[in-house]
């Protein structure tokens, strides 16, 4: 707790239990002890600000218990667009990008109109949370036993109406939850060095969303 008190914003991105660092198969135990979860919950309740990012399996499973104390229900799977099979695009036209303080920013130059994400998970949000990114009916969540291994027997379900980004006030503090991490990075993936993240041509506004999230967590606007 003393270390937390030294900062204003805590960012947790893709935490893993030691058991899954080299083995991305089920089970995916929590990356946090019950004591750590209680400390974080109390810290936020007393004015701390948490940015929780948990990508596809096994990261979603590792953060599930922590997310749940704030009311977010993570799913430990992989969400794919069944039509394009490419990055997920969230925009106002499709009603998948939801207008809010975070998408508008403090002025017009900070607003966003389309956000791209690169796989990840879907989650349900508590009633008092505000959605940012919402999946439509074309997105399917796959729940494999081993990461990236899918076949006809892999459990799956439609995630229409579920979120990949949302935020809320919690007690005296604030929480932002996202189910995809690459969108806030700039990666060169695989041997082909594919651009994945803010460096991808389909994601020119992602950096604005990230800045708005940090500014909201910092209390610069409501």
Tell me what you see in this structure.
This protein is α+β, with helices and mostly antiparallel strands and 222 residues long. The chain has a single domain (2-217), classed as Rossmann fold, CATH 3.40.50. 19% of the residues lie in helices and 28% in strands. The protein is built from five helices and 14 strands. The chain has a five-stranded mixed β-sheet with strand order 1-2-12-11-8. It has a three-stranded antiparallel β-sheet with strand order 4-9-10, with no helix packed on it. The protein has a two-stranded antiparallel sheet with strand order 3-7. Strand 11 and strand 12 (173-178) form a beta hairpin. The two termini are 26 Å apart. The mean pLDDT is 96.
Brief summary:
This protein is of the alpha+beta class. The chain is 19% helix and 28% strand. The chain has a single domain (2-217), classed as Rossmann fold.
Strand order of the largest sheet: 1-2-12-11-8
| Count of beta strands | 14
SS class: alpha+beta
Radius of gyration: 17 Å
* Distance between the ends: 26 Å
Helix count equals: 5
Percent helix range:
10-25%
The average pLDDT value, as a whole number, equals: 96
Low-confidence stretches: none
CATH class label: Alpha Beta
Largest sheet: 5 strands, mixed
> In percent, how much strand structure appears in the residues?
25-35%
Described by its quaternary structure, the protein is single chain
What sequence of helices (H) and strands (E) makes up the elements? HEHEHEEEHEEEEEEEEEH
Number of separate domains:
1
CATH architecture: 3-Layer(aba) Sandwich
